[in-house]
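Just wondering, can you check both lines?
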Amino acid sequence: MGVLTPSCVTARDGRIYAFGNALSYSTSVPSEVYFLVVSNQNPSQTLDDLSWTLVNAVPTTGYAEIKYADILGFHNPNHYSCTIDDKGVFSIIFKDDIYNVKGGLQFQPSPAGTSGTGTWKNITIPLDYKWTPLHFTELFNFKDAQGMNTLMHATVEGVNDVRVGALDPTTMTMNQGLTPWNIVRSTQKTLVV
C-alpha cells in the first residue's frame, strides 16, 4: 500500500485506530484509498511492540474527499475529528476552510458471525452547520436511554458557547441545534492550585 499517513487517530479498549488515505499499488495503475488500521492490544508506552493490522481499505471514488493535509502541507487537528464506538463503528468528520466543504465517513464492520468486511458510508454535513475555524472540536459516541450509540459532535464557538450536533443514522446527516449552548460566565468556577 505504500506510506501510510494517518489523518486522525483515536483509541478504544486498549487499541489505537488510525484513518488516512494512501496510494494502493495493487493494480498497474495506482489508485487512492482510505484505510483504517488497528494496533495490537495494549502496546507498551515505549511503543517498541506496536504493530498494525489493516481493518479495511476502500477506493476513495464516490466517498467524501478527506485529505490529510491543508494547502501548505500541514495537518490541522481542529479540522478532523474521529471516534470508534463499542461495536467497532469508526466515524470521522472533517472540514476544509479553503473550499468551504464539510463531510465525513463511517465504517460499519460486518456483524459478528457473518461474512464480509464491512461497509463505508458518507456522512453529510449541511453547509449551514456551524463549525468555526481554529476552535476546539470533539466527535464522540453517546449511549441513549435505550442503549443505542449516538454519534455526536461538539465544537467551541467564542468564549462561552458550545455547538452540539448529532448524526441521524437514517439519513447519515449531522444535525445541529439552531442556537449554541451558552455557558454563563458567572457560573464558571476558577480552580486555584
Summary: Residues 5-181 form one domain. DSSP finds no helices and 13 strands in the chain. The radius of gyration is 18 Å. Residues 111 and 120 are 14 Å apart (CA to CA).
